[in-house]
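batch_manifest entry 22 of 60
target: DUF1450 domain-containing protein
source organism: Evansella cellulosilytica
requested by: lab member K.T.
priority: normal
notes from requester: please return tokens only, no post-processing; we will run our own comparison against the previous entry in this batch. if the run fails, retry once and flag.
--- input ---
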Amino acid sequence: MMALLKKLFKQEKVKIDFCQNNLDKFLSEQCFSDFNSFLSQKNIDFKEYTCQSKCEICEESPYAIINGEVEKAETAEQLLKKLKERVNR
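--- output ---
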């Protein structure tokens, strides 16, 4: 039922920003295709920045900024799971 409702009503675009340095550090080749599939959805607008001046977070763990809020995780796989949960709310 929920999937049908989502199709009937246009979803708002979700803006996700990434730090390129952070992706280079934490994103494995295994996880890359999963991220690519997720980010290719019509309701997602993403952008990579060279640096987002969040160096303390960047050194510790993978993160993304989703609609202006920082979302971080222990692994890239966990970050992707959190991003999917946020988008599908």
